[in-house]
Amino acid sequence: MLGALDRRDRPPEEGAAAGLQGFAVDKTFLSSLKGILLETELALTFIIFICFTASISAYMAAALLEFFITLAFLFLYATQYYQRFDRLNWPCLDFLRCISAIIIFLVVSFAAVTSRDGAAIAAFVFGIILVSVFAYDAFKIYRTEIVPRATQGDQQ
């Protein structure tokens, strides 16, 4: 018991401080194509959330949920913290994130445009732009991550 109190009062050793470097932001990722795509998705999702909040608050939950999911993926990729969860298939999860966002924003955008409100029409326009960004991201993930893994599995 006394040993545990002594360990708490001492400053952390260098090995423990090195463990905190897992949250360092990789600036090269943020300037890469994937980083720019995630940042664009995040910004457009936030704009759509603001538009839905101003016009039809019933649809703002979908935009807020996708905002937090995209923020989590941006954080995990930018800090490279996703590498600690090696049992998860990250390209597949990212691909499914994009496909689900495409479906959600298509449905919500077309439902919002029926209200004929100015902010709802702006949300529709930004929603269509966001769907195209998510579709491009899904296409890039499929071409760079999923197809090469499938061809490697066929060769073995």
Tell me briefly what this model is.
The protein is mainly α. 76% of the residues lie in helices and 0% in strands.
Name some characteristics of this structure:
MARVEL-CKLF_proteins, CKLF like MARVEL transmembrane domain containing 5, membrane, mainly alpha, 156 residues, globular
Task: Explain the overall architecture.
By secondary structure, the protein is mainly α. It has one domain (27-146). The chain is built from seven helices and no strands. It starts with a helix and ends with a helix.
Count of helical regions: 7
Strand content: under 5%
The largest sheet, given as strand count, sense and whether it forms a barrel, is:
none
Helix content: over 70%
Tell the overall outline.
Answer: globular
Low-confidence stretches: 5-18
Give the structural class: mainly alpha
Q: SSE order, as H and E?
A: HHHHHHH
Can you tell me the number of structural domains?
Answer: 1
Mean pLDDT: 82
The total of beta strands comes to 0
Radius of gyration: 21 Å
Instruction: State the end-to-end distance.
Output: 55 Å
